[in-house]
Design goal:
Elements: E1 6-11, H1 17-32, E2 38-40, E3 49-56, H2 63-67, E4 71-79, E5 81-83, E6 92-94, H3 102-111, E7 114-118, E8 127-128, E9 131-132, H4 133-138, E10 148-161, E11 164-171, H5 177-188, E12 192-202, E13 205-206
């Protein structure tokens, strides 16, 4: 790994983005004999895996150049159930035994291609009145998330066997796949949450070019 550069990391599940940064910083600092500045250019939820772009040293000042880029995700959506957080981290509830047909799925998916309005999940890192939304939600405070417009360039079904619907989504920066999963479930009348999520590309950078933490000698 080099200082003053970017590092492509394949984030493992059950780890925060800040945890990834801390571990890479520790390795770089040990190698250079001094504390090295390391930052990320966009978080992934703890349950999610996939591509993160880390910036190191002087490149940290360019972090904003990487944070607003388009992204591609692959997600598994669990139909018939909802989660309080929109993912596997929350409390899961059964809400429906409706089994949508493939035609139903395709019609619903088509509705979400293009410019759409989306309300980010309350369990997110978005700041509301200077505070992280997820911290307010965990404290039991009422959180009103602002609706914003995002763009879905392409959305395709890559697998469907009820209750699991697998999709690939090419989206603009700021799009929440957890919210997309919930909105798809709402439109189908089944309810849904995001069971698995993997980011496979950020603009021109691909997951195949990323290193795992194990590749860097990080085993914890």
């Amino acid at each position: 790994m080099q200082e003053n550069s970017i590092i492509l990391i394949d984030k493992p599940a059950s780890m925060t983005s800040f945890g990834v940064v801390a571990r890479v910083r520790r390795v770089l600092s040990r190698e250079s004999g001094k504390r090295v500045k390391v930052g990320h250019t966009g978080t992934l939820d703890p349950f999610a895996t996939g591509l993160m772009i880390l910036v190191t040293g002087n490149e940290c000042k360019n972090a904003g150049l990487y944070s607003k880029l388009d992204k591609i995700y692959e997600a598994t959506i669990q139909l018939g159930q909802i989660s309080t957080t929109g993912d596997t981290e929350g409390e899961i509830s059964q809400v429906s035994d409706i089994i949508p047909s493939t035609d139903d799925i395709n019609k619903t998916i088509a509705k979400f291609i293009g410019d759409i309005n989306q309300k980010p999940p309350i369990y997110s890192a978005i700041k509301i009145d200077g505070q992280r939304a997820y911290k307010m939600a965990r404290a039991g405070k009422t959180v009103e998330m602002p609706v914003r417009q995002v763009k879905i360039y392409n959305l395709e079904v890559i697998g469907y066997k009820y209750p699991e619907l697998k999709i690939r989504a090419n989206v603009s920066s700021g799009t929440y796949i957890r919210t997309l999963a919930e909105d798809i479930g709402s439109d189908l009348g089944t309810g849904a949450y995001c069971k698995q999520l993997r980011r496979t590309s950020i603009d021109k950078w691909q997951i195949d070019d990323a290193k795992t933490l194990g590749d860097l000698g990080i085993i914890d």
